[in-house]
Amino acid sequence: MANHKIEIRRRNVEKILQAAEQVFADKGYAATSMGDIAERAQLPRSNLHYYFSTKDDLYRAVLQDLLDVWKQDALCFEHFDDPRVVLTSYIRAKMGHSRSRPLGSKIWAEEMLHGAPLLAPSLDEILVPWAQLKQAKIRSWVEDGRILPVEPSALLYMIWAATQHYADFGFQVTLLNDGEALSDMAFEQAVQTVTGVILRGIGLEP
Q: In terms of domains, do 17 and 108 share one?
């Protein structure tokens, strides 16, 4: 019985987060209401308030869920030491989620563009230490002569900009592709191109 309740809760929370991600991306934080999200999730509004007391709580949960996904993408920094393997894996994972979860990336970009009004108090704890660990790894590769000298944070910014472009500027990508979404083959070519440019820029061959 307990397991059944846990599963119901998991499914409802997942459904709410997916709906919230869609509505926040479509309408923006200020113009979104809990009623809008309940309607998109096809759940009573009372269900939303049962799991998330306020719109702020739900908004933060959407962004935290996305950040958790991005942290999973970066586990290769911990599991591997070869810079080619790490960066190839990381870029592919980031590109994949830019394609599968473009709306979440847009919400994150909007929050950052406005100075992270809702997330700022927690970013020092949830984002800064995480990024510093990745920078330390890159710095160690430079010190060991395994990659060309590069400023670690700049390399991360380049990767984020290149990979998240396919989410944040998805309309532009489609527009410049004769109005068609990238095919699987075209997207794979994009992954390989981004990977190759990044790796060659630090002295590695793809």
A: no
Question: Does position 157 have pLDDT exceeding 70, yes or no?
Answer: yes
Q: Is the pLDDT of residue 121 over 70?
A: yes
Torsion angle, alpha carbons of 33, 35, 36, 41, to 10: 130
The upper half-sphere exposure of residue 191, i.e. CA atoms within 13 Å in the direction of its Cβ, equals 20
Same domain assignment for residues 73 and 38: no
Domain count, the chain: 2
Q: Which domain holds residue 167?
A: 61-201
Between CA 154 and CA 146 the distance in angstroms is 17
What does DSSP assign to residue 181? P
Mean pLDDT of all residues in 123-141: 92
**Cβ neighbours of residue 178 closer than 8 Å, sequence gap 6 or more:** none
Q: Are residues 92 and 185 in the same domain?
A: yes
Does 206 map to a domain? no
Burial of 58 (0-12, 13-18, 19+ CB in 10 A): buried
For the segment 37-50, what is each residue's pLDDT rounded down to a tens digit? 999 999 899 888 89
Count the neighbouring beta carbons within 10 Å of the beta carbon of residue 145.
9
| Residues 156, 94 share a domain | yes
